[in-house]
Amino acid sequence: MSKVAVVCGALRQPLEFAAAIERLLYHRDLGHIDRIILSTWHGELGQLDGVADILSSHGVDVVEGTPPGNLGPGNIYAQKKALLQALLRLSPDTVVIKLRTDKSAVLLDRYVERCRGDLTPADPVLSGFTRRVVVSRLSTTLPFMIDDFAFIGLASDLLLMTGGSDGLNAYWAELQPTAEMNWMYAPLLRRDFMLERFFSSFRARRVSAGLMQLARNWSEIPAPIMSFLSHYWRIVHGSYEIIHNSPLPREYRPLDLLRQAAEYPHVRSVGEYVTITNEAIMAQIVATLPEAAGTEHQDVNARQVSATQEACEALAALFPAAVVKDVREHASNARGGNLPPRALLECVLGKRHEDLPSGEREILAQLMSDESRRVPFQNVMTQIARAYMDGSSGLPRRPDAVRHWAREAAKMRDPQALGLLVSLHVDPQAAVRDPDVRMALAAAGIRDGELFSTLAEAMLNQGMNAVEFPRAALLRGLEALASQGSRAAGLVLAAQAAGATRPAPEQRR
Q1: Which of 236, 285, 331, 406 is deepest in the core (most CB within 10 A)?
Q2: Within a 13 Å sphere around the CA of 157, how many CA atoms are in the beta-carbon half?
Q3: Is the CB of residue 336 less than 8 Å from the CB of residue 384?
């Protein structure tokens, strides 16, 4: 397996650049690496007379290109293009040491030494990589804030890291993602429900600063938040390896990953976040974590939806200033007419659309392309759910597809989606035991008064006090409907006040 050092970017610090290249030549001559590539921009070498000739005479390959017109936040587009220029000239199984032209010389020897060993397999479920990417340090409080001065990975895995920036910046506008987050989260973009929900709902830096303050005061971290952090730590440990791996003189606990203390030599605070610099710490912590809710990326289950909702509610309660204010309004009013059909399909189904027969994919794409010009996007999803239920518009009858599309429509507060989800059950008593129905009920509220009354009655009669819709909220909804003249809501309230249970709907006929 070939080992190649790729030095990327503009020549900002010529002296450090020269020192790094000379050290790389030393390692190449010893057989530690096989090849050195400088990937830079047209005109950079022309500023340093004679350097191009020296590089050529010593067998350093040079790839020159034009920097992107928009360099991106933290020059991320330029950084990714410089790496991409080199990766496209390598076989997928090449082991690549990616270095900057500056700030990497101090890391070089350690990275070359690590490159001589085999790369560790990535987690097959949690990660988007084949092998874990080796980095120098990572944040435990600000997800995917991972040092990017130097890293090691397979060329095929690093190719995944060169994509995804446009998507991140498009819907993380308030988050203002750093270059590091753009690098390191790109392989997981649209793969993990819990992380997507977090990043689209919260200003991650404010959450990180709040977590640090809580941990510093030894305050209790609410269980749903610890569940989210455990999920992130498992994912980051399954995808990234910290290059330093010294023995630990003591045991670390999860709370230690959120605070800086003098006795923790490998844990320190950096502004608004905490970083660790020892692989052994993360491995020790992950081994002791309880199983986080929901680890299936391509088929989001009800348990993961529920755990994500609980975590988001707990975070919003603790850090209200970190909540992204416009996400709900934007979601409920979104129209998808300007996006290509495949992009819409990718947004909703993610990787799952690859498993659909090509004819069915084409029908879905056409439906979304046509209907999203006429009605809000959530209504398009409801129409697709109905088509799967009726076997119309060229789509087959598929209850699982009805559930999927109706659930997505319900998340965007389309009240019609609730009725579709309820229709998948034999009666209201069975329907309210379905987390998807409860989620849709919470989203739709009392828009459909009769259906709300029926489902609220079923929940109350079964003594349910669900997170999605607690008993007190059900009673408030019924009272609001009754005040508007709803006879059904009035009857349910009267029965509750009398302590009686009305017959099921089919018995009342």
Answers
A1: 406
A2: 26
A3: no
Q: In this structure, which amino acid lies at residue 477? A: G
Task: Please enumerate in sequence order all residues whose Cβ is within 8 A of that of 400, keeping only pairs 6 or more positions apart, or say none.
Answer: none
Per-residue pLDDT tens for 128-137?
A: 899 999 999 9
Helices 193-201 & 223-239 angle (0-180, nearest 10): 120
DSSP calls for 292-356: PS---SSS--HHHHHHHHHHHHHHHHH-GGGB-TTHHHHHHH---TTS-HHHHHHHHHGGGGGGS
CA-wise closest residue to 190 among 171, 218, 176, 212? 171
What span, in angstroms and rounded, lies between the C-alpha atoms of 320 and 322? Answer: 5
Neighbours of 377 (CB within 10 A): 25
Which residues touch 74 (CB under 8 Å, ≥6 apart)?
A: 178, 179, 180, 182
Of 6, 261, 239, which is closest to residue 138 (Cα–Cα)? 239
Q: Mind listing the pLDDT tens digit for each residue in 99-148?
A: 998 888 888 899 999 998 999 999 988 888 999 999 999 999 999 999 98
- Which 3 state secondary structure label does DSSP give 233? helix
CA 192 to CA 235: how far, in whole Å?
9
The Cα 296–Cα 304 span in angstroms is 8
| CA distances from residue 194 to 26, 186, 261, 301 in whole angstroms, order as listed | 46, 15, 30, 11
Confidence (pTM): 0.63
